Amino acid sequence: MPENKKNIISKLQQDILQWEGYKPPTAGTRGVVGLGPIEAVFPNGAFPVGAVHELVCGNSEEVAAAEGFIGGLLSVLMRGGGACLWVALSQTLFAPALKAFGVEPDRVIFLNLLRDKDVLWVMEEALKCPGLAAVIGEVSTLDFKQSRRLQLAVEQSHVTGFILRNDSKKLGSTACAARWQVRPLPSGSAEGLPGLGIPRWQVDLLKVRNGQPGSWVLEWDESKFVAVEEIDVAERIHNYG
Amino acid sequence: MWLKGYIIMAKRYMAIWFRHLVTDWLMLRRPELRDIPFVCVAPERNRIVITAANYLAEAGGIFAGMAAADAKALCIGLQVLDAIPGKEAKLLRQLGLWCIRYTPVVSVDLPDGLLLDISGCDHLWGGERGYLKELVLKLRASGYDARAAIADTAGAAWAVARFGKVSPIVAAGGHAEALLSLPPAALRLEATVMERLQKLGLRTVGSFITMPRRELRRRFGEGLLLRMGQALGLEDEVLVPLVPPMPFVERLPCLEPVCTATGIEIAIKNLLERLCLRLQNEGKGLRKAMLKCYRVDGKMVEAAISTNRGSHSVSHLCKLFELQVVKIEPALGIELFLLEAPKVEDVDVVQEMLWAGKPGLADTALAELLDRIATKVGTERIRRYLPAEHYWPERSIRPAISLQEVPSTSWRTNRPRPVRLLPRPEIIEVMALLPDYPPKVFTYRGKRHIVAKADGPERIEREWWHDKGMHRDYYAVEDTEGQRYWVFRSGHFDDAPEWFLHGFFA
């Protein structure tokens, strides 16, 4: 009875997930953040809210892309009226730009600190605070022990954490729920109009706990993520001939 | 009188008069002056006038207000010194601070006295007589020629200290009687009023105190009535305390000096529990608190905390202080802890539980988190931004004053703004077509970017009322790798403009 076996296996998988601390999805948790096909690869098919996500950035351009990507996620996470904490070593994020990603910039509290140590301390404290919608931290490095501390902090409070790390060279193991890499891609122009199109990113999921890593192309269209199935080769040729 | 279970205590005041304040101080500073007559002088209306004379000079008939030349003629060997302006106030302040050990309310009474509110303080010295004796003897022993008196009103005490001949202590209710035989000067009157009283032959207070008030006002003005009222206790006289009393203070003296972190934490918890109970009963929340630790070696170390909103939660305030404990150096031990709350505010006690779970910026947990962070890293590192009505990118946001402040204008979205804005624009090398085309190629930090797409220009003029310089023409550009930048040309194309990179788009 292959049908029966399949049922048993999926049941066992569900049990394992539950033992590992993943709650079975309740109605309306799937597809909430609007990441489309990406969400399907996560355990239970839902984007892990209440976990720490790690975003790897190599240079300033990638940091900007990652910040845009986070901005898009924040617009969903902050919909309940929650506030958000943005902890960084030097403040370069330009608050008005968040408005374009559907985030109220005045509900974001910025912290400019001097050392990585301080950033991690503040992040850990903030992740324990259940009143927050999300906490974003920009650090230069993050080792396994630090990532585990952060992951433990969110397990009680169910705050979503994002870590932007600048050392794409030294990637070790991580306790975070997912490791992402977001890179800018040439924007597609609508019907060959000149000028810049809507932001388009190459989103790579390098590591997912209990999930399938993968690679996608996303666009931010006004107020939602749009998955681009395949980049139109013709469009590319048209653009850069 | 019984009112709400409290006895309204009769007020008692003490006035101290330093007859030779400045000269006494000079004699203490320069012992060689002790046995010679000397005066302090200051120029006044083109004359050199005596401002203070010591007792030897006074015995020779010299008094303040006399011309220095006359005094020199009167007394042979008179030493003349220059007066130090403002010295009286300084000396009185020091003496007043010393007097704090006798009463918390001490006020300076220029030019030569102190006024003390001693209500309820005298029993510690076995009654008013003992109190007065102790204070005056101590002052005299330290070299100041002081006279003091105690009465029901500050005015009467002042009068008796200077002009009284019977007893320095005026019994409760007896101040009106004690004033009768004193000269009008005992009422702290203006010179013109005193002169007029003198002319009319009114030599004692008793000779005019029973006159109709209407008549007195007409002839001598409101000042006389006010002073009379203050001396008799009919008008209020407010003493300005030298050290403003701190309404919320808790003390914890220790039997054994405390020198461990655990000990300090226990002390803080103990103090906070008492302070928070008082705050809670009065419906107040703490905004700033200061812990003063007095050490065995005579030094004092401080730790301060501040909160975003009024709080009287012991656990929260304790956490804030715990972050500061490492900064307290106990050395040989701390023998006294003092917790002061210089800034408190009203809090809604009733609604606190109800609204505790409110999300967003009004959340109590968030305010407490920010307090903890501020204690650790400093308040200046926490920022929240509101839109400002400026086109100039650096000025288009302003820091919010408080956590509760809401934006007064909406955020602008009609123009593209980069996600990352460099704190100062960085210069780039550019190849661009004239007159106002976007760059074709630019080099940023040694890397060449070939521009594939561009938007712009968006001209942003400088606000001439703020600063001078060239306008900026902004372009949003995308290179062949898809990286998006915000670059601008500073100034017009025809006078060798400079190009800058100012931000990164997502």
Structure description:
Chain A is an alpha/beta fold and 241 residues long. Chain A has a single domain, classed as Rossmann fold (3-Layer(aba) Sandwich). Chain A has a nine-stranded mixed sheet with strand order 3-2-4-5-1-6-7-8-9, with helices on both faces. In chain A, α4 packs parallel to α5. By secondary structure, chain B is an alpha+beta fold. Chain B folds into three domains: 238 residues, Alpha-Beta Plaits (2-Layer Sandwich), CATH 3.30.70; 126 residues, Dna Ligase, domain 1 (2-Layer Sandwich), CATH 3.30.1490; 85 residues, no CATH class. Chain B contains 14 helices and 21 strands. Chain B has a six-stranded antiparallel β-barrel. In chain B, β11 and β12 form a beta hairpin. The longest helix of chain B has 21 residues. Chain B is elongated. Chain B starts with a strand and ends with a strand. Chains A and B meet through α2, α3, β3, α4 and β6 of A and α14, β14, β16, β18 and β19 of B.
List the helices and strands and how they pair.
The complex is a heterodimer of chains A (241) and B (506).
Chain A: H1 2-19, E1 52-56, H2 60-77, E2 83-88, H3 95-99, E3 108-112, H4 116-127, E4 132-139, H5 144-157, E5 160-165, E6 178-185, E7 200-208, E8 214-221, E9 224-227, H6 233-240
Parallel strand pairs in A: 1-5, 1-6, 2-3, 2-4, 4-5
Antiparallel strand pairs in A: 6-7, 7-8, 8-9
Helix pairs in contact in A: 4-5
Chain B: E1 2-3, E2 6-7, E3 13-18, H1 21-29, E4 38-44, E5 47-53, H2 55-59, H3 68-74, E6 79-82, H4 87-99, E7 105-109, E8 113-117, H5 128-141, E9 146-151, H6 154-163, H7 175-180, H8 191-199, H9 213-220, H10 222-232, E10 249-258, H11 261-281, E11 284-295, E12 300-311, H12 314-325, E13 334-346, H13 352-355, H14 364-377, E14 382-387, E15 397-399, E16 420-432, E17 439-444, E18 447-460, E19 472-479, E20 484-490, E21 498-504
Parallel strand pairs in B: 4-6
Antiparallel strand pairs in B: 1-2, 3-8, 3-9, 4-5, 7-8, 10-13, 11-12, 11-13, 14-15, 16-17, 16-21, 17-18, 18-19, 19-20, 20-21
Helix pairs in contact in B: 6-10, 9-10, 11-12, 12-14
